[in-house]
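Take a minute with the sequence and fold tokens given here and flag any structure token that looks odd. Thanks in advance.
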Amino acid sequence: MITINLLNDKSIRFVRKFAAVRLNIRAFPFYYDTGGLELKKGEIVVVPYDSREELGEVIAIETRCDPYFQRCFFPKIIRIALPHEINRWREHHQREKDALLYCKKKVKEYGLVMKISDVHIDTANRKVTFHFTAPKRIDFRALVKDLAAHFKSRIELWQIGVRDEAKKIDGYGVCGRRLCCASFIRKFVPISVKMAREQDLLIAPSKISGVCGRLMCCLAFEEQLYQEIGKDAPPIGAIAHTRDVQAEIIDRNLLKQLYILQDKNGKRYIVQREDIIAVTIPEDIEKIQRELKEIKEEVAEEELPPDDTEEIETMQE
């Protein structure tokens, strides 16, 4: 039997508990130090946020043993919310749900081509902010007057991009995991078709577009690595020379450094990058590659919507 002395394990000294707290139903969760509180998933707590105290729901509890987290600062949860605070918090979010349904109903009545994503009502009930997406500029002055009369508050309508909408609504990608923008991405970065081309991906909107209809954010995650390993990599269509064979490169895996070759007889070989002694790039291949590159860029520009990384415009009453 193997005995482990936990007292001598240095990592045990750095154990810290964190709670992921969501301040709004569709808000991005923030991590807080539990401060020794025994919390459960779904509990409502009071946390510091932007120089004030806010209520939020605990959606996850994590334990970290890495010494790195001992040096990092995480704000502490102040306390567990009182029953009357929880009731007020739930009533507030119910008002937001009702406001969202009412606004969608009015948009349909006015026949406006816009999609309401979410709504935020401040705790003082003085301002109601709606976020929406639209293909073009919308004249919603009549809608604003109607909403102001109904809610008796200041009304703001913010037009956002479809990527921001996906971040607010949340969901799951084709990989089966939660959307990156809704789970951990804090700021969007520009994504281009060039990233997909450098990773030897099929340039097709259905393959490289996310649920928002824009290029997937994950294309940028390994972009730097692909640039480094693909800098001197033999291109597809080139003639690779090894000690045993001379054949055309028909496919490659840059991460594994594997190349699939095919000779004149149609026989295929799988070789490592280090097995390729020399590479010959025919002039016609270079010409074809240039033409394909131009065609791919034209197709991408026509079929893929432009990337939007920031809020388009702010509009209010």
Q: What stands out?
A: The chain has nine helices and 14 strands. The first strand starts at residue 16 and ends at 22. Residues 1-9, 299-317 have pLDDT under 50 and may be disordered.
